[in-house]
Amino acid sequence: MHSLTHHMRAHLRLGLPLIGSHIAQLSITLTDAMMLGWYDVETLGAQVLASEVFFVLFIFGSGFALAVMPMVASAEAAGDGAQVRRVTRMGAWASVLFGLAILPVFLSGRAMFLALGQEPLIADLGGAYLAIAGFGIIPALLVMVLKSFLSALERTQIVLWVTVGAVGLNMVLNYALIFGNWGMPELGIRGAAIASVAVNTASFLALALYAARKTPEHALFQRVWRPDWEAFGQVFRLGAPIGVTMLAESALFMASSIMMGWISALALAAHGIALMIASVTFMLYLGLANAATVRAGQAWGLRDIANLRQGAKAVTLLVGGIAVVTVTIFLTMPEPLIILFMDPDEPNREAVLAMGVVLMAGAALFQFMDAAQALALGLLRGVHDTKVPMWIAAFSYWCVGVTASYVLGFTLDLGGIGIWLGLAIGLAFAAVLLMGRFWIWTARSDRMAAVG
User: Fold this and answer.
1) DSSP symbol at 223
2) Alpha-carbon dihedral of residues 111, 116, 120, 126, nearest 10 degrees?
């Protein structure tokens, strides 16, 4: 069995480029938020709400792409190249079919926001954003499939650099289309949506070209139009629970945004800024969780339970150390982070800043819970365990988290901080139950291997 230090180094070697790519991916949303915040605070609030709807549906569909990661890792470790190709192709098939199925939701955004009790201005702007951005869902999902494929093969550097390039392209397009620079029309929130579609399409083409040229042994695009229903079923059975799990978590945060919108547009803007900042630190946990999925998938393919547990211990220590640092930053320097998202001349600057500082304290509270549940899900996916975690997540996020947010925020009249305390409670339930499942399951498997 390898040492903890060996496993830490392996997780960092694989995880750091993934962390970088996740942060770069989030930076696309961050630059949208920053530039739209400079453009207009109400527009920022609408974009926060609309982008969360896009993200919720995107993350739901990403379950099929994320199923590709442990399946490819296990197949590659077992020397089954045909299975690598089959599950990757069918992951792409499932992603495209999902994207086509949900496109009508994006086209009815305005009516949806009005039905959810949002202000008419927010509904108009948010609906306009989704009507354009929705057409980027298919290339965005295909990007996730290729990222999972390449990450499972430990080709994470290209994932990082393509995503970094996407950030730069998004900034250029936003600058031109949101504000009307360089002779382009001033499109505001619509410009941000157009930029997002263009960036997702360019990212897919870049990754597809790399995969075709650098992994010819897998022949991903050879007869890609031919169905493989057996492999499709394997991807669907593993990926659908992952999608539902991620939907439950992301919808928890979307529900919090809807509730913040019930308070006021300024509260929604403050919430959006705090949530964006917290999302950056979550990318650190998510990158290491993805690395844990690949490493656990490799150990699972070899049925090496001892190194599976040792690797899990190592990555848990890494994630815990990062959480300590982020809590310290959130509690000691919230103002410099918040003001990055606002124009210095914004008339509501002080009000949004005051609300944001309080919410950042709430974000500090759930860092450990968020890190633990993300890592536990990554480890469980590595051993192809997704169905029970789906039910655990749905119960924790919705039965516990959303209920607690509503009761604390409105019944007990704690407002925005009450909503964020509810988020922390839901994440804590998920963290305890999911981590417990992984360690109990692996302990039993280890004992069975020893007896055998």
Assistant:
1) T
2) -70
Query: Please, is 229 exposed, middle or buried when counting C-beta atoms within 10 Å of its C-beta (0-12, 13-18, 19+)?
Result: exposed
More confident residue, 402 or 280: 402
Distance of alpha carbon 151 from alpha carbon 144, whole angstroms: 10
CA proximity to 154, closest of 4, 11, 306, 300: 11
Cα 284 from Cα 322, distance rounded (Å): 8
For 46-60, 92-106, 317-331, which range has the lowest pLDDT when averaged over its residues?
46-60
Residue 181: φ, ψ to 5°:
-85, 165
Do 202 and 140 contact (CB within 8 A), yes or no?
Answer: no
pLDDT tens for each residue of 335-358: 888 887 776 777 777 888 888 888
Q: What is the pTM of this model?
A: 0.80
Residues sharing a CB contact under 8 Å with residue 302, sequence separation 6 or more, in sequence order: 77, 78
The residue count of the chain comes to 452
How far apart CA 418 and CA 48 sit, in angstroms, is: 20
Sign of CA dihedral 111, 242, 166, 329: positive
- d(CA 16, CA 157) in angstroms, rounded, equals 9
